[in-house]
Design brief:
single chain; alpha/beta; Glycerol-3-phosphate (1)-acyltransferase; 7-stranded mixed sheet; 8 helices; 18% strand; disordered C terminus
């Protein structure tokens, strides 16, 4: 029965719109702090940009977009991701369907076409957003985002979002299911630029710097909501129930 329901367009639309409504409640009921405090002044001088974050920290990112911003987010083609795509569109964010992957799966999962579409969106003045880590390899930045930066000439800005009230899902990305009426922290990194003539070594250096910034800002966001620093990239954090603070 669930298998039939989850493939129903009507059910997926209902779930996606319900998710969007729930996330609005979480955001509006949270006491949000941002670092740096002038984040939007700094960001607006760099538009269009590539916003990136770890898998599992993505649910509240649509609320970082101001009404005057144009933005698209890359979301996987998997049927389960349809709900996320519907929720993003209900929150005013355009979608590009595809995802990163290792080896030949990159084309099979739509990564190549999605990469081209993200580059075109940036050329047209639209901001883009995507996760830094590829599916099933949590908290290890891939080369996808730095490749888009190289070919678009646009800066990458990593961001981390943490909430004091959350449940960690039992999933490979340790997705945070945010709960309302708590504290939220948004922390942005210094940014990464990738030169158009970057070779393999330069791309790897940019990837490593992006990972370093994501780890740093994730630890800072967690600290701002009263939680100890997360484990280093690549290590599993134990699943937990609701955390209140």
């Amino acid at each position: 029965m669930w298998r039939r329901l989850r493939t129903s367009p009507t059910v997926r639309t209902l779930l996606g719109r319900s998710m969007a409504g729930y996330l609005r409640l979480v955001w509006r009921s949270s006491r949000v702090v941002m670092e740096p405090a002038n984040l939007y002044d700094l960001a607006d001088a760099q538009l269009p940009m590539i916003l990136t974050f770890w898998h599992g920290q993505h649910f509240l990112t649509p609320f970082l977009v101001k009404p005057y911003h144009r933005a698209k987010v890359m979301i996987s083609r998997s049927p389960d991701a349809d709900v996320n795509a519907i929720a993003a569109e209900a929150l005013g964010i355009g979608t590009v369907r595809g995802s990163g992957a290792a080896g030949r799966d990159f084309r099979v999962k739509g990564g190549f076409n999605a990469t081209l579409e993200m580059i075109r969106a940036l050329e047209e003045g639209c901001n883009v957003a995507m996760t830094a880590d590829v599916p099933k390899i949590s908290r290890v930045a891939g080369l996808g985002v730095v490749t888009i930066a190289k070919h678009s000439g646009r800066p990458i800005y990593p961001v981390a979002i943490a909430t004091s009230n959350r449940i960690l899902a039992r999933s490979w990305d340790r997705a945070a299911i945010h709960l309302p009426f708590g504290r939220a922290a948004v922390v942005a990194g210094d940014g990464v630029r990738v030169p158009a003539d970057a070779d393999a070594a330069a791309l790897e250096a940019a990837r490593a710097e992006l990972q370093r910034q994501l780890d740093t800002i994730t630890a800072r966001a967690e600290a701002l909501v009263g939680r100890s620093a997360p484990r280093p990239s690549g290590e599993r954090e134990p699943e937990a129930g609701p955390a209140h603070g």
